[in-house]
Request: fold
Amino acid sequence: MALKMVKGSIDRMFDKNLQDLVRGIRNHKEDEAKYISQCIDEIKQELKQDNIAVKANAVCKLTYLQMLGYDISWAAFNIIEVMSASKFTFKRIGYLAASQSFHEGTDVIMLTTNQIRKDLSSPSQYDTGVALTGLSCFVTPDLARDLANDIMTLMSHTKPYIRKKAVLIMYKVFLKYPESLRPAFPRLKEKLEDPDPGVQSAAVNVICELARRNPKNYLSLAPLFFKLMTSSTNNWVLIKIIKLFGALTPLEPRLGKKLIEPLTNLIHSVGAGRGADRAVSAVLISLSSGMPNHSASIQVRPARAGASPPLKYLGLLAMSKILKTHPKSVQSHKDLILQCLDDKDESIRLRALDLLYGMVSKKNLMEIVKKLMTHVDKAEGTTYRDELLTKIIDICSQSNYQYITNFEWYISILVELTRLEGTRHGHLIAAQMLDVAIRVKAIRKFAVSQMSSLLDSAHLLASSTQRNGICEVLYAAAWICGEFSEHLQEPHHTLEAMLRPKVTTLPGHIQAVYVQNVVKLYASILQQKEQAGEAEGAQAVTQLMVDRLPQFVQSADLEVQERASCILQLVKHIQKLQAKDVPVAEEVSALFAGELNPVAPKAQKKVPVPEGLDLDAWINEPLSDSESEDERPRAVFHEEEQRRPKHRPSEADEEELARRREARKQEQANNPFYIKSSPSPQKRYQDTPGVEHIPVVQIDLSVPLKVPGLPMSDQYVKLEEERRHQQKLEKDKRRKKRKEKERKGKRRHGSLPTESDEDIAPAQQVDIVTEEMPENALPSDEDDKDPNDPYRALDIDLDKPLADSEKLPIQKHRNAETSKSPEKEDVPVAEKKSKKPKKKEKKHKEKGRDKEKKKEKEKKWSESPHCPSPVSLQEEVDVNAVTASKDECEDTKMEAQGEEDDAEGQEQDKVRLLPRGLWRHKKEKEERSKGRKKSKKQPPGSGEVAGEAAQEPVHNGAPEEEPLPPESSYSLLAENSYIKMTCDVRGSLQEDSQVTVAIVLENRSSSVLKGMELSVLDSLNARMTRPQGSSVHDGVPVPFQLPPGVSNEAQFVFTIQSIVMAQKLKGTLSFIAKNDEGATQEKLDFRLHFSCSSYLITTPCYSDAFAKLLESGDLSMSSVKVDGIRMSFQNLLAKICFHHHFSVVERVDSCASMYSRSIQGHHVCLLVKKGENSVSVDGKCSDSTLLSNLLEEMKVTLAKC
Amino acid sequence: MIQAILVFNNHGKPRLVRFYQRFPEEIQQQIVRETFHLVLKRDDNICNFLEGGSLIGGSDYKLIYRHYATLYFVFCVDSSESELGILDLIQVFVETLDKCFENVCELDLIFHMDKVHYILQEVVMGGMVLETNMNEIVAQIEAQNRLEKSEGQGLG
Reply:
């Protein structure tokens, strides 16, 4: 009965597919979560089953649940299982799930490498396609490195469907593995001219993405794109190309002129319709970033007035681009833009706002801001209102308050903004208030009065829920009132406002500022009272302090508490002194004497190391030679003395001042700790008493300053108009004076007056104190760059010829080197990788710079775009490399073989689920055909160079210390002074009983080796496959020559009758060694050893199949045991996998089952058990001789462990 | 680059969620919700571009969307994509869906999310536009469907 139930439920599970799941969820609206968790349980059951169809169905359902927000990472392994299904239907489901849920942190992702590689080389284009699509979503740096070469091969696939996908995915590969960019780039470039439009479009797409980040590296492609642009009819391609040119023109201005004509043609030719709009607006937008195009902006206007909303938006977008280069042509559309502020569409409003930023001038600033303020009031939705607020502040503060003529107006704007409810930008307003008050001295009085009224009405701000952040303004207000308390009209009143109990509800950091500034205020009141001789008044203030401060002492905020208790003690002390009638005011205010100057944000960083200062030198070395060092401590005291007291008499002795300044400058030059600069010229200007030539208009009298809550800024607008009118009248009179003034230099830092600005003189004598920078600060733009920018790694010079070391790593016998547990190894590999690209990048950069310089000298490019860049010395040296790199693309397959010999420097990381056998035979086949093609295609001689390149070791990402010594599957065959032969014997499943012997020939002499011929004495059992028509005694020619120091690989196929025994063949390599002195005939004998293991091909096997195989009973059994083994089990298995071509089926603790298959189809199963320091291997095989021979070989291997 | 493609209905129920940058599932849902609220409050006759989704990307990113009957199709893209181009792409995508499902409606998307994904995979790959020619897309989809069918028969 129970069994039936189980069976029934299994049946039901079978039935529930994605549609049922969706239906179920829809039917369980009220308890959806419960239903889904029940479904997930079912899915878990399904995933445990062996049937791949059931698993795939389960994974498909999981993908749906993922969309609903359920984490499915726990099923990652099952997803991989489904990915490796042989049927496309299931494979596709698996890849889809993987693409939705895998990411760099997915640990099992490393298991997919071989599966993906297999799928990439699948004969079905859709298997390949699905793998590429999936990979594009979850490619990791490891995958990118391992698969880059395979993908590159696919870029020349016969099917355009695969080609375009392969091209597109390369961008992802570049991002994850920047080293691949240079080797792959030539082929990518080639694809720009692919016959298939889809592939072409993909290539354009990739290059545009690349060029967007680092345009300068792609300037050399401009002629090619130019051609494409004039020939292509695909709108997508056109748009991308035009965007690309948009990025290139700023770098190469001459390009702009060349583009005007074709672009105009384009605009006219596209005519009406959807595509046309698109192209046109794209044209406009990209055009505008750097070419003379008043015509463009003219075109925008009708587009916007005509006004389908998307076009309106794009018109505004285009304008903002044009604005950067041609502000004038946009400014004339001010009316339209202001109109757009009233648009009901927020996107359009935001765009218009953006434009306003660039359109303001001294003339229209007030007007525009006024308009914006009305919008602030009207605006609904905090996002837009906040945006408005930040924009207002941005507009006003841009380029060092360049456009503000009246700072009182600005302060009142800021104060008005504080009445905004629910804004997030309180801190922004506060920062502006502080900045203006500190840097514009003339405004302080006004600012202080405004701030004190703000403090007075603090309850309004604070009460409207603290979290909205507007109370940040109080921070600024308190600080300004405290710091510039001498300007306060009713300090006592403000003091009381600041000591209200309500204050304790403010956030801690604001309270802290309150406490600190209360004392400043107190100090200044004290001084006033004492000067006026009101001892009682002074004592009353002290009493007030003593009464109120304790509320802060109890604060929960540490900072507040600390400051308050400190100050409370101080005030109590003062109180005692006051009781004794001791005048204290002087001393108290001395606490806050001196002025705070604004310091530029990066000032500290930019302090240069003074000449002669060696930071590495001993600090405590004898003071013998150190006059300057003696001075250093003194300098600090000098500094203190020279600090100006707060109320410095303005009529300071000029001479004395100059002298001091000079002295201080000198000290500062020697003092590395000093970041304060000498007074800027602007400041000096203000200090000079000659004020008479500045038109000061007294305005603050007419403004009712003390009524908070009234929109006052409007009045400034009116006032300003009047003032300007007046100014105009006086203009002629003043002209003379102004000239004189101008001669004296510009008053404002960084303000470049435009024509329109010249007419307007600022209302006040405003002095914007520049932020302080250390003297001779190092100019550096480094700070702007984000070191973590992933695109930076792709800033690679692409014109430089490829070096030998820059090759894509190619699949090697990595599975064999699986040694330590992957978790341990992950770390160093990752570290390595993160280091590597940087180094490379630097190198490229340096070289790139050199090249650029050269280019600049030559200035050839723009005249004749097709002219190749001049050959540099370095390039000449690297001629070999150049040829190699050219051939490389065609020969990647060749390399696949060539590099297999090189096992050292391999990064050995992950356990391959699916070992190499499966993909390899395919490769070899392709390779052979490729090789044939190559020999036809290539001019004689280039083959060797390519071969040489192929033999070069690949060091990319190779960890230095490896847990297992690097091993090569190539073993030494024979060597003499001329040549070294190493070989690897590989079985191939494809052709029965054939093995391929790959022999690497390395020329060690200084002669050229040619006419190489390999003759092998056939045995009964093994025969070498010779070209048709040649006899058994003829040798087989080696299809290449070897220049000195070069190595290359040749392959020979042998047919084997029986594979159950190992065997040896005798052979001779004969060759002619030719050097300057002549040619000699040489030969080298060798013995080729075919071990039984070499007939095995690593074949994956599932545990269920494995179990069946064992149960079948037609396998004979044998076993060996080896003692004295200390190697870890993991490494041991790796060794067996590597040397004997097995794959691990299952591993439980120190026991593993392994499987392999011979080229003639014998199954070989192993059970490897590890004892304390022994290993026993039980084997089962369909041929007992083969098994025993294999085990003997294995014993030898293990004995070495 | 396309950062994400979201399809949801008038009530904000996701019908297709395709991110080309990793976000944890929780955040993905948040983004869908946020995006839904952003587009929901917009009239149908105003422009199809939207800036200011706070969760994806930042200022470089835009939401480009189209509203079809009960469904919103939203693409989140960076500045390298042309706005009108993407609008067109959405149209291509929807027309392709229409061809493949024969008069597509929300129910098709609900019950065949996997198929919608496969179609999308032929249009956009890894965040980059793969194919814009509808005939080509449909041809590839059909070829794959045939392949799937033949496998199904093989299975018995």
About this structure: The mean pLDDT of chain A is 71.
